[in-house]
């Protein structure tokens, strides 16, 4: 298993954001995506997850191998913790949700409605979902927002286990997660946004 991006360009709201993004990750690797606010970390992850098309270039393998965790937790508010995980496990064909409950310290909260969880507990449940997808590539957008130190540790442990099992993890984050990984600053891939001005002028 490897994950490869070649000469990728992506846009947001019709405006070019990144261009010329190329890298390859091998099984077991984690890559931290860095760069200032607005540089395009979320845009890149959304493109990798298949939520928006690439403007140019290729991503291999495709979105059916990606588990994406966005800024929002994406929980079903009226289902319990256990029911939320069971829902996603059924979608992805996973039999056993217990390892996911244990990994993110959710066992005692299993019967609580997602609506009634604290922000950090919601985030833990959102991340536990990754474990029932069975997908080899995790694309995570600021995954530790709202997490306390102990929960950041649970997250780091889950990432390490995923990578030991041959998985690949991409993490967009501004903070130090205590995870040993290479970092890629997306600033070097900032798109030349002059092109949109030329476009406008041509039609005025
Ligand atoms: N829905 C949208 N429509 C138009 N432009 C958008 C939209 N969402 C984001 N953008 C713009 O796209 C660019 C890239 O945003 P993106 O969210 O990918 O950056 P980011 O690196 O993840 O930022 P941050 O570190 O603040 O989370 C920014 O200039 C942003 O203002």
TrEMBL record:
Highest taxon of source: Bacteria
Gene3D superfamilies: P-loop containing nucleotide triphosphate hydrolases (3.40.50.300)
InterPro entries per UniProt: AAA+_ATPase, ABC_transporter-like_ATP-bd, ABC_transporter-like_CS, ABC_transptr_haem_export_CcmA, P-loop_NTPase
Alphabetized Pfam families for the sequence: ABC_tran
Keywords attached to this entry: ATP-binding, Cytochrome c-type biogenesis, Membrane, Nucleotide-binding, Translocase, Transport
Domain ABC transporter: 3-202
Residue ranges that the Swiss-Prot or TrEMBL entry lists as coiled coil: none
GO molecular function: ATP binding
NCBIfam families on file: ccmA (TIGR01189)
PANTHER family named among the record's database cross-references: ABC TRANSPORTER I FAMILY MEMBER 1 (PTHR43499)
Protein name as catalogued: Heme ABC exporter ATP-binding protein CcmA
Species for this entry: Pseudohalocynthiibacter aestuariivivens
């Amino acid at each position: 298993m490897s994950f490869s991006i070649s000469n990728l360009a992506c846009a947001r709201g019709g405006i070019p954001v990144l261009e010329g993004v190329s890298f390859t990750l091998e099984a077991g690797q984690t890559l931290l995506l860095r760069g200032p606010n607005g540089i395009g970390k979320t845009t890149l992850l959304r493109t990798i997850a298949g939520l928006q098309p690439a403007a140019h270039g290729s991503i291999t393998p495709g979105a059916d191998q990606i588990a994406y965790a966005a800024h929002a937790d994406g929980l079903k508010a009226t289902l319990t913790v256990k029911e939320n995980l069971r829902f996603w496990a059924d979608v992805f064909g996973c039999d056993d949700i217990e390892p996911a409950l244990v990994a993110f310290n959710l066992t005692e909260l299993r019967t609580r409605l997602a609506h009634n969880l604290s922000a950090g507990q919601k985030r833990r449940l959102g991340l536990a979902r990754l474990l029932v997808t069975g997908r080899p590539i995790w694309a995570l957008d600021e995954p530790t927002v709202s997490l306390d130190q102990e929960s950041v540790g649970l997250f780091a442990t889950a990432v390490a286990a995923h990578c030991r099992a041959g998985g690949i993890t991409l993490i967009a984050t501004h903070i130090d997660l205590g995870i040993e990984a290479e970092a890629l600053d997306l600033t070097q891939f900032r798109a030349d946004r002059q092109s949109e001005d030329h476009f406008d002028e041509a039609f005025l």
